[in-house]
């Protein structure tokens, strides 16, 4: 079972969110990701490790390289958590709409 705390911790950093955007289009090596950011390769590697711990990416060895790619399954826990709040707001907005419509007919 996925630890959502670790997943949300991974998403909390803007650099990691930027890395996820990069990986949406293709799998990339650490070096390719590092070229896109103004930080050291070890710093990028640490960000990738946090994303992997949060199950948002997978790191697959291929030859001498390690390819980083999005793990779609990792986003399910985030979506499930957000769905709870969507339901919360849908119920309240439906009640507000009903109250407004009722007020307008009076």
Short description:
The radius of gyration is 20 Å and the shape is elongated. Helices cover 66% and strands 13% of the residues.
Proportion of residues in extended strands: 5-15%
Secondary-structure content class: alpha+beta
Low-confidence stretches: none
Tell me the Rg in angstroms: 20 Å
**Average pLDDT:** 93
The end-to-end span amounts to 52 Å
Helix content: 55-70%
Task: Please describe the topology of this protein.
Elements: H1 4-11, H2 14-25, E1 28-29, H3 30-34, H4 41-53, E2 57-62, E3 65-70, H5 74-105
Antiparallel strand pairs: 1-3, 2-3
Helix pairs in contact: 1-4
Structure overview:
- By secondary structure, this protein is α+β, with helices and mostly antiparallel strands.
- Helix content is 66%, strand content 13%.
- It contains five helices and three strands, in the order ααβααββα.
- A three-stranded antiparallel β-sheet has the order 1-3-2.
- The longest helix has 32 residues.
- The protein is elongated.
- 18% of the residues are buried.
- The mean pLDDT is 93.
Task: Offer a few descriptive terms.
single chain; 106 residues; alpha+beta; 3-stranded antiparallel β-sheet; 13% strand; elongated
């Amino acid at each position: 079972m996925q630890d959502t705390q670790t997943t949300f911790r991974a998403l909390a950093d803007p650099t990691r969110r930027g890395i996820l955007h990069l990986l949406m289009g293709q799998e990339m090596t650490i070096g390719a990701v590092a070229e896109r950011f103004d930080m050291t390769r070890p710093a990028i590697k640490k960000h990738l490790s946090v994303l992997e711990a949060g199950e948002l990416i997978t790191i697959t060895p291929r030859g001498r390289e390690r390819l980083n790619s999005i793990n779609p399954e990792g986003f399910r826990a985030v979506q499930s958590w957000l769905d709870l709040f969507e339901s919360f707001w849908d119920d309240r907005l439906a009640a507000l709409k009903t109250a407004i419509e009722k007020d307008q007919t009076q």
